[in-house]
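During the reporting period, we have paired protein sequences with backbone structure tokens. One record among many follows, to show the layout:
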Amino acid sequence: MNGTREREGHGPAATARLLTRPLAAALWRSRAEPADPDPPWPFILRWTRFFGIGRLPFRIVGQGFDLFIAVILLFSGIATVSERMAPRVPYDPLYGPARPAPSPTFMVVLLAVWLAAPLALRRRHPLGAWRMSAAGMLVTGLFVHEDARFVPTGVIAMLFVLYMVAVRCSRETTIGVALVTVFGAGLLQPRTAAGAAVLIAVPLLVGFLVRMRRTSRRELEQQERRHRDAEAVLLERQRIARELHDVVAHHMSMIAIQAEAAPYKTPDVPDETRADLAEIRATALDALREMRRILGVLRQEDGAVTAPQPSLDRLDELLAGARGTGLEVSTKIIGDVSGLPPGVGLTAYRIVQEALSNAMRHAPGSAVGVEIARAGGILRLSVVNGPPAPGHSPTPSPPGAGHGLVGMRERVAMLGGELSAVPIAQGGFAVTATLPETAPPDAPSAPVPPPDAFPADGARPGTSAP
């Protein structure tokens, strides 16, 4: 079978496919990549900031430049095409070769527009602009004099379009565009085909190098974003492990103490029961040592966490701090939220803390509604904020921020709950969570969220919970 594949990869048929694929991609099959909606200013043009132009969006400035050059090429092309389409006048020894300037006709104007329009379209449709420019050059060459078939306005527009094709299209498509353009140049004027090939190669080569640089930079940014997301997941799991150590260690210690004290409360405890209680104490202490060995090392990576972990009993303190920053916080508590399991209470506190932190940063001065309901073994949280108050502007997120949702998802998934964090129609944001007080037996372990599920540019959802 390998020999068959090798034979299929060589020979005239394979060579024909290798040649026709770029041509098919250039002429009808391929499409250009979508344009960057907010491209940065090139480094060599950043000096324009001193004149105010560089502070405008580069996409608008670039399109305006193309339109300006296209208008200039249009009017100069009308004169050039009209002159080259006019019949030649025999040389007059008395009056010389001078003749009246020919008046532009409808065909002249149509050809001039055809040659200049691709320049205005190259940013939106690079391949379409190239096809239009190539067709315009070929058609114009049929109407002008044989020794002057390359109209300068069409050549200038074609060079600009070729650069954009190389930047926005694949390598296969760029090769096909180069082959077709060189072949067309040789077909129009064979004696200048070599020079035309060199001129065509310059914008294609420059555009290809720009494309390679942008691709490398984009891949590097994606790798850094994936690394930041993975690091955020690991850091949050370390935090959860430390908190799990605090919560479980307390209960295991209580089991060991109660098992040791139980025989002294009742003097007539049977020896068999004493042995069982001693076994329970020993098992609890072994489990506690093993857990400290596995999880306790995480407490030493960035210093031991000895402070008690917060719960909803500190909700008033958290809300007071949020009000102190200018938020208008209203609360609604349904049911008794005291006595929650430590893990549930801690997770609920962190979710409310993260949602308020997001509101402080992205919607300063907004109205925030916090609702907590406990019923039927389920704790429901809802934190909804409106748009920023008049006169307030969102605070840009620091570099590397944007991982708050990672932590919330990890915590909720650990408890077998559900989390929703979505924008609302009024311009604000809503974070809702459902936390079971007792995790179901078949609750899955916390999955690693995909990197593209979280923003990497600091946009909402916000930052990691402190």
